[in-house]
Amino acid sequence: MISAALLGIAALAFYGAAEGFSIASLRKNSDALARGTTILLVSGLLCHFAALQVRARKLHSVPYRDLSDSMSFFAWMIAVTYVFLFFRHRERSTGPFLIPLVILFQVISLLTRPATLPARKELSGSLFAFHVTTAILGYAALSLSFILALLYLVQNRQLRQRRTGLLFSRLPALDVLDRMEHTAVAVGVAALAVSLTLGMVWAQKNWGTVWDAKLGATLLVLVVYAVALFSSPLGLKGKKTAFVSIFGFSLVLFSYTIVNLFVSKGHVFR
Amino acid sequence: MIAPMESPLVLVGWDFRRTPISIRERLAFTPDSIREALAHITRQGVLSEGVIVSTCNRSEIYGVGTTADVEEAVTEFVAGFHRLPKPDILGSRYGLSGPDAVRHLFRVAAGLESLVLGEDQILAQVREALRVASAAGATRSVLHRLFQQACAAGKRVRSETGVGTRATSIPGVALELARKVYEDIDKRSFLIVGAGDIAAIFYDLLVGRGARTIDVVNRSFDRAQALTSRGGTPRRWDELPARLPHADVVVCATASPTPLFGAAEASAALDARRGRPVLFLDLGVPRNIDEKVSSVENAFLYAVDDLKEMAARNLADREKDIPKAEAILEEELADFLSWYGSLAVVPTVTSLRRRFERVREEEFDRQLSRFERVAPEDREKIRLLAQSMVRSLLRRPTVALKEESDPVRRVERAEAIRHVFGLEDEGGSE
User: Fold this and answer.
1) d(CA B413, CA B217)
2) Quick one: CA dihedral B348, B350, B352, B355, positive or negative?
3) For the segment B83-103, what is each residue's pLDDT rounded down to a tens digit?
4) Residue A114: CB partners within 8 Å, gap ≥ 6?
5) φ, ψ at B130 (rounded to 5°)
6) Which of A35, A158, A160 is the mutation pick for testing B, counting most B CBs within 10 A?
7) Active site includes B252?
8) d(CA B203, CA B427)
9) How far apart are CA B84 and CA A164, in angstroms?
10) Helix A67-89 crosses helix A95-111 at what angle (to 10 degrees)?
């Protein structure tokens, strides 16, 4: 059986090649290169999925319990969400800016050694697996929305300052970035809401309570993003939505790191 | 089998660089006159194949010639066809043949020879020229292949270099900007303020790009009505403030000496739009829109000078990519010439051999009539000797032609051999 590490490296190679192709396709404005990007990216996804499968069989649970596994899973979810965004909006010019996120987390995953943790009974089962999977999907979609929000602000600034150089001509239109960002936030919010619900059911069953600091943090994240998503009547569009998105993402980082490490008692990846 | 070297590829043309408009307009061809001219020129035997590319900037006749002085013959024909004195069109004419003619056509198709570098209409015009000539039955394999390859080369230059990418005209730049705020022009609403020439140019441009929602506000309502004949809604002057919040793109092109609106009006419009951005294009001189509008959140204001500057910058960017475009054209040229050269070599070798054999036969008969007392077996020996000499003499040039891998050089060698040995009158077919 091929090792998970080897499959992970193959996936990384595919992602790297996809990034190269997407930059070239943007520079040359070539359809053939754009098709190549999609093929490479999907090949990377499949390799990566196989790597996760190998790990899951070994652990008898969703592979998330140490840094290496959770980063790899996270990278894969980002790639899945990006491919979804790509097909949903038919917009290839954001690829060079979004694929690096996949590469970054996959590199972190490959550089850290997977820990050998004892299996824990309460952490197996499909309820828990879905809770973790949807949480990671939610965070992956929100990280993409963060990058898209930054791109929106960059493009907005260029338009305002009348700097219409190469980057300006290559980035998509403001309304496209806006729509993509909304889609990413919508996926993120939906996935997190599902994850939160499943998590509460699971916690009630195993801990006898639903309350946890992580739950509070996630609720706050959800509220912030819901404002970004459903706030058109409030006059939040474009630039303001982008700011809310960026603020929401900083909360995600806070919840992922500070809350995980110092506040939450039972909600740690280990 | 076509024998390209005895019927070389030629181009005779007149363009905006060398020929004044007064003559150029008389040299222009319509699709009908192209069909007529091609029928005449092929019937007269001046060209065996022909294609005419005629635009407002150039009239060019590409052809496969049947005689040595084909350029003169084509010029003569054009003068006669357009009823112009030959001296009037001789001075500004350019004539190219072989690889140079091919290279010129590829440059034309890629927009490198255009008045506005890289403009994209010419590619469609070249494609149309081939279609008209083919329909008239004036093209066979050489010109058909040549023009198809020219279109492919032009397309490659446009997709692989920046020569034809960014807009270089003010309306083009304005449209490019609009598409960076809202991608789908056809789903957006436009507000044109003014109904003069510039407003009309923009109206045509937007209608051409499929924009369906166009409001035209003008002081004279009649003129607004006249302008919106092909779609859109004419509006009265006092409707301007009410229409502002509905517009995704506002184009102002009036001769008003004072600004039509300022930051307060723009701000109110944007508030009503709940933050959806607006692109303001101010084409008025003096300005129609107060400069302070650019400080309003989600309002992007561009004045005519900004657009001019962008157009100039884009043109400079296009020029930077000329070497890259030329490299692509040379690749395509080599590809065409290797095909064309393969046509060229075989007939050249054939006619060269035929020429030598004919000289041998003639000389043999002439000389042998002077030696009456040569025995028949000696006569045969002399014939064999002459045959072997001819074969030896032919071996080197044949090898030189067939083994040259560089297609340009192969065509040039074939041409040189045909010229040196006067093979133009020699039939090349097997």
Assistant:
1) 68
2) negative
3) 999 988 998 999 998 899 999
4) A4, A55, A66, A68, A69
5) -65, -40
6) A160
7) no
8) 60
9) 49
10) 160
